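User: Design a sequence. Structure:
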């Protein structure tokens, strides 16, 4: 053992150590790229986006009523639905330290989108394309 030379630590580019670091780097990067979208999907949100969208929808309802493109009864019905969605968002946020779970936030935003769709159809600015009771889209005339 005395006369044996110890092999030097591989340091050349492309050596086994460098390859293992590159593999580790690639695996780490891949894990991050996969994990980041899922982290956002489960993050809680504040009710601000829902309240803002509901206020915009309310303004659209008021504009449509002022232009006589919907009846007062329809305007009242749409307005009450928007209020109920906003109240649900605020109630949920109050129960959960000011935030709304992401899944429920998406559900409430989808309800507002459906309500906006109804307003678009009622005012003649859009039309429904039904696909076997699937969600309908808005398509401008």
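Assistant: Done.
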């Amino acid at each position: 053992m005395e006369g044996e030379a110890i092999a030097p630590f591989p340091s050349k580019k492309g050596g086994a150590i460098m390859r293992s670091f590159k593999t580790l780097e690639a695996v780490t990067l891949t894990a991050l790229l996969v994990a980041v979208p899922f982290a956002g999907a489960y993050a809680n949100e504040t009710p601000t986006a829902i309240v803002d969208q509901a206020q915009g929808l309310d303004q659209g309802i008021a504009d449509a009523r002022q232009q006589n493109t919907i009846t007062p009864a329809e305007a009242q019905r749409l307005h009450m639905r928007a209020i109920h969605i906003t109240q649900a968002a605020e109630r949920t946020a109050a129960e959960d330290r000011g935030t709304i779970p992401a899944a429920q936030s998406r559900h409430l935003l989808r309800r507002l989108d459906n309500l906006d769709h109804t307003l678009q159809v009622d005012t003649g600015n859009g039309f429904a394309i039904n696909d076997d009771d699937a969600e309908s889209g808005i398509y401008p005339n």
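The CA atoms of residues 129 and 136 lie 6 Å apart. The two ends are 88 Å apart (CA to CA).
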